[in-house]
Amino acid sequence: MGTVQGGQPAKLDIEELLATRLLVQGNSGSGKSHLLRRLLEQSAEWVQQVIIDPEGDFVTLADKYGHVVIDADRTEAELAGIADRIRRHRVSCVLTLESLEIEQQMRAAAAFLNGMFDADREFWFPVLVVVDEAQMFAPSVGGDVTEDTRRMSLGAMTNLMCRGRKRGLAGVIATQRLAKLAKNVAAEASNFLMGRTFLDIDMARAADLLGMDRRQAEMFRDLKRGNFVALGPALSRRPLPIIIGDVETSARSSSPKLMPLPNAPEDVEDLVFTPDPEEFTRPVAQRRAAPAPRPTTDILAELSKAAPAASEDSPAVPTRTAAPALSEEEREERLVGVLDEILADPQSAFRTDSVLYQEFLVRARMRRVGGPPMAMSEFRRRVAVSRADVDEETAASASWATALSLSSGVSDDLQGVFLLMARAAIRAEPCPSDLRLAKAYGTHSARRARRLLGYFEEQGLIVVHTDFAGKRIVAFPELEAETLPGDPNAADDEGQDLRSAAE
């Protein structure tokens, strides 16, 4: 990577890095991008590389090292498909996001990372995944983007850093502000390269990550450009100052340099205030905002329409064979089949609704399901009902109809949790554990599941109490039913219902 004090080489163990991940921090101008470029150049011949590049600075790697440059101005399905083929053929690439706005950048990066994460097991080859400006894709708090976009991007980054190792994905994330980076993403890195920073909160977090005393945090203000403090099993067992070495390629953009002004002519005022005659004939360039992307539902609705027949004046054009007309029963059967296929994947519980919805639309078209596509709100409701795993007898009962009516009063993302508990109460089954409720919500956090119970209770939908053994019971006043006692801390209660029924 460079040299340490005394001129000795500063080594980085790539194999160890693949198993332990890396976090790079440094303010603008600290040499953070230079460090990433040095790492990529030194390891290009040893490991496949994927760079998520918000500013298009790393596209110059293509000329010397053969990286494929991918413009992210594509649909999410296209990006996911490209990411899958990148893993299959072990091609190094740069995903450049510079042509997109911030929210589009987050969605494009998330779709690409999810496509790599979902690759088949036989293609889990080691990949170095470098994400520059990681605080954009894993923000610690919500910003100007929609909550759905934030959750989609944060989920993809969490998968990369928390669960990517077994799939061969080694995350290298770089950020200007540690305080703006989600803690659960930063905490998964075991190697650190900390550069110059000035804000107290960032210095304190950097010192904590390096195991240094808070009083030593002041040293980060004094670091020169290109100087970093290294720590981690792939770098050094103790904090080690290093100087990053030279690189062979350069970014398209560079730091501004001082340039003397030209000698001012005597008629400078005439040059400024007198218009050039050509200015009146030159078209005025108007800055227009990029048009908002068309909703997927509108596009699919147009595609589902039959193509117009050729007239005598216009030549016939080859068209695809129209999808056979389906009855309402056949269409509903195919939609249910597609939904069951998607939810059969164990990892579907932890994917965002938007990702599942895109996959649902694609698979529905592959099954030749015509007509207007299902709305997002209806899709979320069907997913919630499907995950509740209700049998035909329960689904036909008046109590379940009441439960569905009550669930419409909560937000879409909470309906799955509510219906899961309602089913347990109607069928007199043990109360689901915290982990089961968390899975229904699409998270691994049992604490968040307990907060959801408190929210439902505040809304007057349920009453939570415990028996003498400390097991939890959830009652539904509107249903006049309650669950059997269940252990909230059970590790896996999916078989608990069957054991209780057998008893």
Automatic annotation (TrEMBL):
Domain AAA+ ATPase, residue spans: 18-207
Record protein name field: DNA helicase HerA-like ATPase
InterPro entries the UniProt entry points to: AAA+_ATPase (IPR003593), ATPase_Atu1862_pred (IPR014588), HerA-like (IPR008571), HerA_central (IPR002789), P-loop_NTPase (IPR027417)
CDD domains linked: TrwB_TraG_TraD_VirD4
Native species: Rhizobium halophytocola
Span list, region Disordered: 305-329, 483-503
Lineage: superkingdom: Bacteria
